[in-house]
Write a structure and sequence with these properties.
Blueprint (H helix, E strand, L loop, with lengths): L7 H13 L2 H8 L3 H15 L4 E4 L2 E4 L1 H28 L3 E9 H4 L2 H11 L3 E9 L1 H9 L5 E5 L7 E10 L1 E4 L11 E2 L7 E5 L4 H13 L4 E6 L2 H9 L4 E4 L2 H5 L6 E6 L3 E9 L6 H22 L3 E2 L29
Parallel strand pairs: 3-4, 3-5, 8-12, 9-10, 9-11
Antiparallel strand pairs: 1-2, 5-13, 6-13, 6-14, 7-11, 7-12
Length: 338
């Protein structure tokens, strides 16, 4: 007669008896009944054609064959416990991998602080944080290369869900000793004779800047054009002019040699959380988003003041899918927002 191996249930019962020394103790450990334990053991011994325990004075004493089996089964359940700990850690958000793509100013500003805080509470969590242009962020989310994107509102796709995070105002970044730096806000009309650093044509933020000058009925003296905010800020820091850029990175990186002043009237753009509508969503990413929203609500007003506007509850509908305007990313590479 062919002898079959033990089932996982039989191994579980065997291991519980080895740990407790009785069928009653094994039943309590496995949250079942003593007759059930005895039945499984009887079937196991019959199936193996091998006696595993001697019954002496109400106790089950392992036979030499049982002692021979124990190390292998013990190692098996040690691995099971490792897997169980891993699943508990994953479920609690203490372990896992977080993949994020964000527009340059966001990734280098408040997002890096949020990621650092999140990881400090979860030592076994790994994070991949990529900084790129907003269209590239959208592309990464659409293609499921990252689970979360954070970018400005310039483009959209039917493949993603968008949620408004905050509204960032383009500001004037200048050296602290410039006469306009003494003002709490700078009227666009007062920039008519200043050397201006701002985005290149074709970048959506440049459209906002141009519109502000048109509304003020002035022709700006644009001396330097850049593709990302950080370059403009560094140019302003070097004294090349006044930078009209998205300024979150100024406070985020704690520049001491420049200041940022909001424009009057405000020139703003929305920053959105972007997730693939059809991709599975991890609990870890959900927990990070909750932490990020909390930080935005509690810390952003102190960090950035009038440079950032937080959305009211009425501005953040649950079914919000995309900004008011936009188009699918694919095939579009001329727009390169910071």
């Amino acid at each position: 007669m062919t002898v079959t191996g033990m089932t996982l249930r039989q191994m579980e019962v065997f291991y519980a008896i080895m740990q407790t020394g009785s069928a009653t103790g094994a039943a309590a450990l496995l949250n079942t009944t003593q007759p059930c334990i005895s039945t499984v053991l009887r079937h196991c011994e019959s199936q193996l054609r091998m006696k595993l325990f001697d019954r002496i004075a109400g106790r089950l004493h392992p036979t030499p064959d049982a002692e021979e089996l124990l190390p292998g089964i013990e190692a098996l359940f040690a691995r099971v416990e490792v897997v169980n700990r891993l699943t508990r850690d994953l479920a609690a958000g203490r372990r896992g991998s977080l993949t994020i793509a964000a527009a340059f100013p966001i990734a280098n500003g408040y997002l890096s602080k949020a990621v650092a805080r999140f990881m400090a509470k979860r030592k076994d969590t790994s994070v991949v944080l990529q900084s790129m242009t907003s269209p590239e962020v959208l592309d990464r989310v659409v293609n499921r290369e990252v689970e979360l994107g954070i970018a400005f509102e310039t483009l959209s796709s039917p493949a993603v869900d968008l949620e408004l995070l905050l509204r960032a105002n383009i500001a004037c970044v200048l050296k602290p000793d410039h006469p306009l730096a003494a003002r709490p806000e700078i009227d666009v009309r007062d920039l008519a004779d200043e050397p201006i650093i701002t985005y290149q044509p074709g970048i959506p933020q440049r459209t906002l800047v141009d519109h502000a000058f048109i509304q003020a009925n002035i022709v700006p003296h644009i001396t330097t054009q850049v593709t990302i905010s950080l370059t403009g800020i560094m140019m302003a820091q070097s004294g090349a002019g006044l930078a009209l850029v998205e300024p979150i990175i100024v406070a985020g990186m704690e520049f001491s040699s420049v200041v940022a002043r909001p424009l009057k009237p405000r020139v703003g753009m929305n920053a959105y959380l972007i997730r693939n509508r059809n991709a599975p969503r991890s609990m870890l990413t959900d927990m990070f988003i909750d932490d990020l929203k909390t930080m935005v609500q509690q810390d952003i007003p102190t960090m950035f003041g009038p440079l950032v506007t937080l959305p009211a509850a009425a501005d953040r509908p649950r079914d919000e899918r995309r900004p008011p305007t936009g188009e699918h990313l694919r095939g579009r590479r001329k727009s390169v927002p910071a």
